[in-house]
Design a protein that fits this description.
By secondary structure, this protein is of the alpha/beta class. 35% of the residues lie in helices and 20% in strands.
């Protein structure tokens, strides 16, 4: 009889193929949880280990590891993108580029949001705008319950919408997630986001990773065969594009770990050994 694993993962080509049974296994059955949007699965995973396997934001995973959560990272990328297009301001704003964000009010769903992690890192590295030189306005807590936002972040008033605050001028800029507002009254705070993205790629050699896949550490330890079979299934479903080697992922994880420590998301920088601890193989 096939073993069964509960899994929470978003809508991607490889997950659709697995859901539809295009790729199956006599040894493993996947019980897909219905979670929309997928970021609603992150808190239950890191707080309660609700699923055997789950998609996870990189910033959330780093914070979970820093707080001793029993999770193991799998070398599977669910979602990645260049982040620059997610930083918006009003079309009539006097912001002409990222350097103008010093001393400004910038909204972000949660200070721990992964898009915010990458953008704050770029602001500091490339434009001298460190995280503590911006007033961050947040709307949600971190997925990891133990985490508290730093002093340079404050919560928006209850009932306030980030998009509405930006439109009304209560925010100078805002960082959005995968769904960007289609609004002619808004524009990217980067004058040429494509050029900035290509500059990041030339410097670092990778596209920033937003979400990967993790599993319960106890499951990985007890049944590495199931994790290996899951990896095989995902590779088959996506032509191998989603599953990568650890070596290929290490540069992105190292930089994300540095950014997390610099921005106060973690108390210190996690090593690659710590990030991959508990992983199969």
């Amino acid at each position: 009889m096939a073993a069964e694993l509960s899994i929470a993962i978003g809508d991607y080509p490889f997950s659709r193929a697995l859901r539809a049974g295009v790729v199956s296994s006599p040894a493993l059955k996947l019980d897909f949880a219905e979670v929309t949007p997928i970021n609603r699965a992150f808190a239950p995973m890191v707080r309660d280990l609700k699923y055997d396997v789950a998609e996870i934001a990189i910033a959330t995973f780093l914070q979970a590891k820093a707080h001793g959560k029993e999770l193991a990272l799998l070398p599977i990328v669910a979602f990645e993108r260049f982040q620059e297009s997610a930083l918006l301001c009003r079309a009539d704003s006097d912001i002409r580029g990222p350097a103008d964000l010093k001393g400004r009010r910038v909204g972000v769903r949660a200070y721990s949001q992964t898009t915010g992690l990458w953008l704050r890192g770029a602001l500091a590295d490339e434009y001298g705008v460190t995280a503590d030189r911006v007033e961050w306005i947040t709307f949600e807590d971190a997925h990891v319950a133990e985490y508290r936002d730093p002093a340079h972040a404050r919560r928006a008033e209850p009932g306030k919408s980030m998009l509405q605050m930006l439109r009304e001028g209560a925010l100078d800029a805002a960082i959005f997630g995968a769904e960007l507002p289609d609004d002619p009254a808004l524009r990217c705070a980067f004058p040429d986001p494509e050029a900035a993205a290509q500059s990041f790629l030339a410097k670092h050699g990778f596209t920033p990773i937003n979400h990967m896949v993790c599993a319960k550490a106890a499951l990985v330890e007890a049944r590495p065969d199931l994790i290996e079979e899951l990896m095989r299934m995902i590779s088959s479903a996506n032509g191998g594009a989603a599953a990568r080697s650890r070596a290929a992922l290490d540069p992105a994880l190292e930089l994300a770990s540095r950014y997390a420590a610099e921005q106060g998301l973690t108390a210190r920088r996690l090593s690659l050994a710590e990030i991959w601890s508990g992983a199969a193989g």
